[in-house]
Design goal:
16% helix, Jelly Rolls, alpha+beta, 7-stranded mixed β-sheet
């Protein structure tokens, strides 16, 4: 039986992001408090879980912390009257991650994110209007990991009337998110640790004027509200700190929590307290980080884009949900190898790392290069090459380093085997609907490029979709960072004496190699310096001598 649409993270785009309700004191409606743009994910009422009051004992967490005070938060921005809060939330999380990872302060282009998450020229991608439609919170993960980021100066906010991403003349992204942790609203300590480790946590909450104390910018909704209200009033922000002792008396009398403690969130409605630039949200707020708005997340690691690396994938959007199988289709759904077939003929790439999405935190993984025959991965595991193995640290997007594996100059496959106590799950780029009524995302499905092996049998993902009467289908999401091979100074896909000569000229100051070539290609012996020993290493490679 085809899985229920609710298992796909079905979502309703918020057109009017906030339904204002007059405050008890009769105050006027404030337009600044009706700018949202998040999306509600249909998980069911039983999964609408609030964050509990934190107990940090044993977690080495302080009672109060602020990434703002620590210098890991960029200035507050203004999304204007557009429903783009999810975009600003993603950008804010990435800007903090860049600071935490030592790359410095960047003002990232939300407009680039906004176009990336809009309908493409061919009608695929996110089926949303970039000015009026919100987006599901987890779309930010896909934007960051598959779309990358550019500077605000390269594409300012709302600077163009072009309608789709391909029409834009934009530069190559500077950075990508490598690892992105999904966070449980049931464990506030996990969110706190992520704020300290990553700078910020992207999340959403329900906003309504009546729950705000305008004098203190303190907010708490501890009422039960309808799904319709939740859908109309979602707002995406980033959590940048907390205070376990933030007084309950700071909140509105209409919604005063029972205990002290609050999250510090960075908003996107403009600088200054009068614009609610920072808001304290009570731990007892029922909807902060609620599953109703999708998973909260934090950017754990960064991939720097440079002139000697590139991204390889067979889908351009990232995973929409984590797919798993049951015994009616595969023999062993707890031990599955998820496989994508790639064309590795581009300058004989060296795999430096790869990312995949899974919910199987704590489970074992193994990553393989798999030869391809007749367009399908070879089933004989004796022919496979293991590239990495370990345990999945957390639920989310995982980036795994690979020891510069040089792939053959041909069609080949990458397989990720997951052995789990629960059914093995893997990120899949698939269609998404709004409560089953209309599509809000359509993939660019590449038929016969994704496969899976379980119980010794190979299955085609295309055949699986056909068996489910699904005409759109999808692909597994495996994102490879491929580098030019070390020693290939001229980047022509072949290491020869010409490369040794170029490096000798650079060392002798006759020519100057590109800084990326020197850092990522010329340091052939990987000793963090470029000198004559690297020329010798190139000559050894030419002679077939292993330099490892």
């Amino acid at each position: 039986m085809k899985r229920l649409i609710s298992a796909l993270l079905t979502a309703a785009i918020i057109i009017c992001p906030f339904t204002t309700t007059a405050a008890a004191d009769g105050g006027a409606k404030d337009k600044r408090f009706i700018v949202g743009g998040s999306t509600i994910a249909d998980y069911g009422k039983d999964e609408q879980k609030p964050i509990a009051v934190s107990n940090s004992d044993g977690f080495d967490l302080p009672e109060a912390y602020s990434s703002v005070e620590e210098g890991f938060v960029t200035p507050v921005k203004d999304q204007g009257d557009m429903n783009t809060c999810t975009i600003f939330s993603a950008a804010g999380a990435m800007e903090s991650a860049l600071l935490k990872n030592g790359y410095g302060e960047y003002d990232l282009s939300e407009e680039y994110f906004n176009y990336w998450a809009s309908t493409r020229d061919d009608g695929n991608g996110w089926l949303r209007n970039r000015e009026t439609d919100g987006a599901i919170l987890s779309a930010g993960v896909n934007i960051l990991s598959y779309g990358g980021v550019i500077k605000e100066s390269e594409l300012p906010y709302m600077s163009s009337d072009k309608e789709s991403f391909e029409e834009l003349d934009v530069p190559e992204p500077m950075f990508y998110a490598g690892s992105v942790k999904r966070l449980s609203q049931e464990d506030p300590n996990e969110i706190k640790r992520a704020v300290m480790d990553c700078g910020a946590v992207a999340t959403s909450f329900y906003v309504s004027y009546e729950y705000l104390n305008k004098q203190t910018n303190a907010y708490c909704c501890n009422d039960e509200v309808t799904d319709e209200q939740i859908g109309q009033s979602g707002h995406a922000v980033i959590i940048v700190g907390w205070d376990d002792n933030y007084s309950r008396d700071s909140f509105s009398k209409n919604c005063m929590p029972q205990s002290d403690g609050a999250w510090l969130i960075k908003n996107s409605w403009g600088a200054g307290a009068e614009n609610f630039d920072y808001i304290w949200v009570s731990y007892e707020d029922k909807y902060i980080s609620s599953l109703k708005y999708g998973d909260s997340y934090a950017v754990e690691s960064i991939i720097k884009k440079h002139s000697c690396n590139y991204m390889l994938n067979i889908d351009q959007f990232g995973s929409m949900y984590d797919m798993s199988f049951d015994e009616t289709y595969v023999e062993d759904p707890y031990d599955v190898t998820f496989i994508n077939v790639f064309d590795f003929s581009r300058t004989m790439p060296v795999i430096n790392s790869l990312s995949f999405d899974s919910e199987n935190a704590g489970s074992e993984y193994e990553i393989y290069y798999i030869p391809v025959s007749g367009g399908k991965p070879v089933n004989d595991k004796a022919a496979w090459t293991r590239l990495a193995s370990g345990n999945i640290e957390y639920s989310g997007l995982i980036n795994i380093p690979i020891d510069d594996f040089k792939v053959p100059d041909e069609c080949g496959a990458i397989g990720v085997r997951i052995k789990a106590d629960e059914k093995a799950s893997f990120g899949c780029c698939e269609w998404m609907t709004q409560y089953g009524l209309k599509y809000i995302f359509l993939p660019r499905t590449a038929d016969d490029r994704s496969f899976f092996i379980s119980g010794g049998k190979t299955y085609s993902l295309s055949d699986y979709y056909t068996s489910m009467q699904d005409e759109i289908g999808g692909n597994f999401s495996i994102n490879i960072v491929a580098n030019v091979q070390r020693g290939d100074i001229n980047k022509d896909g072949d290491i020869s004496i010409a490369d040794a000569i170029l490096l000798q000229k650079d060392i002798a100051d006759i020519i100057t190699l590109d800084s990326d070539v020197r850092e990522y290609v010329a340091d052939t012996d990987k000793n963090s310096s470029v000198n004559v020993s690297d020329c010798i290493a190139i000559q050894k490679i030419i002679a077939g001598i292993d330099i490892k």
